[in-house]
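Anyone up for a design puzzle?
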């Protein structure tokens, strides 16, 4: 005699007993991570608070790497204004707040800001396993400095080196829309349609990217010099945009960042920024947020403009078409900087792998 299946009441009672005995996943205890990196609970959403994160302040003070600083916070070894902080991503102002590690007061670093004319062949990374010359090696300072953004090894021009986390966040985060101006020598002659396409936007692997402004500065037999303005900082953005429209970059130089211009600074040289220049950089970034001209960190895909075009009707009962819709095609560099740029010998090999 065959067994009768369990009733619904029995099955429901079994499920309830399983939950009471620990069957509910939410009530189970998760294993503790004893090895590897600590769990990061930092939101990737942009913040209106320009102050640097606590782990960046600890790393900038030379207490260890960013990951080691995060572990110090999670272990409860860090205090801010006599209160223990264990949440990653907490923001502090090291110039006005007291930070303690293991009971010892963290010395407030003296803020330093340098502008460098990065030559080709120099990397922008904080550390390089290959032992190549870094941008920070060009500056003589006892402070632990880092670059604001990056330029790849084969690019040259203006780059900032500082230990000011607040300024770095304002200039490097795409949320603030700080403009960066480049001179790019490309193969061939881009047409007006190509320039318009660069400004409208081009699809890259991580989404749509675009140049804020593009104009032709000089034409030659086999190449063209373009002035390109960006307000975001994607990885090697200038080279990738121009490659997508069929114009390889032969030479790339950044000549301006916000209101700061490279001027007559020779390759490999650097100078300290004046207080007025620092204030102008900060004011320009915060003004874009106040006026609402830069809200989203990344531009969305532009909507194509549509227009209706009347055509002759097709004499067919299967395809009675009277009209169709088609997508319509969309229709300040100084002379001294430009002359210097075009008179430099072009490199024979171009290869890079970090940024713009």
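Challenge accepted. My sequence:
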């Amino acid at each position: 005699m065959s067994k009768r299946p369990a009733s619904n009441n029995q099955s429901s009672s079994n499920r309830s007993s399983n939950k009471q005995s620990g069957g509910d996943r939410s009530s189970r205890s998760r294993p503790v991570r004893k090895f590897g990196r600590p769990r990061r609970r930092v939101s990737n959403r942009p913040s209106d608070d320009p102050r640097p994160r606590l782990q960046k302040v600890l790393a900038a003070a030379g207490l260890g790497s960013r990951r080691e600083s995060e572990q110090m916070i999670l272990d409860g070894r860090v205090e801010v204004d006599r209160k223990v902080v264990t949440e990653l991503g907490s923001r502090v102002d090291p110039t006005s707040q007291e930070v303690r590690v293991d009971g010892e007061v963290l010395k407030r670093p003296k803020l330093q800001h340098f502008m460098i004319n990065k030559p080709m062949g120099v990397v922008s990374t904080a550390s390089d396993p290959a032992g190549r010359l870094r941008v920070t090696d060009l500056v003589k300072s006892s402070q632990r400095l880092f670059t604001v953004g990056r330029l790849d090894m084969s690019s040259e021009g203006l780059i900032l080196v500082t230990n000011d986390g607040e300024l770095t966040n304002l200039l490097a985060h795409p949320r603030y829309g700080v403009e960066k101006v480049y001179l790019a020598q490309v193969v061939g002659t881009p047409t007006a349609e190509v320039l318009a396409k660069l400004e409208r936007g081009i699809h890259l692997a991580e989404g749509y990217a675009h140049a804020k402004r593009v104009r032709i500065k000089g034409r030659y037999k086999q190449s063209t010099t373009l002035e390109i303005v960006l307000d975001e900082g994607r990885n090697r953005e200038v080279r990738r945009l121009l490659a997508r429209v069929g114009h390889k970059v032969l030479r790339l130089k950044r000549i301006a960042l916000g209101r700061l211009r490279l001027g007559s600074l020779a390759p490999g040289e650097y100078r300290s920024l004046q207080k007025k220049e620092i204030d102008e950089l900060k004011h320009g970034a915060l003004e874009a947020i106040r006026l609402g001209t830069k809200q989203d960190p990344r531009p969305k895909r532009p909507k194509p403009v549509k227009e209706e075009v009347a055509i002759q009707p097709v004499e067919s009962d299967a395809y009675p078409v009277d009209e169709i819709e088609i997508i319509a095609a969309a229709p300040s560099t100084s002379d001294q900087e430009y002359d210097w740029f075009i008179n430099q010998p072009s490199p024979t090999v171009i290869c890079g792998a970090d940024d713009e």
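A detail worth pointing out: The mean pLDDT is 77.
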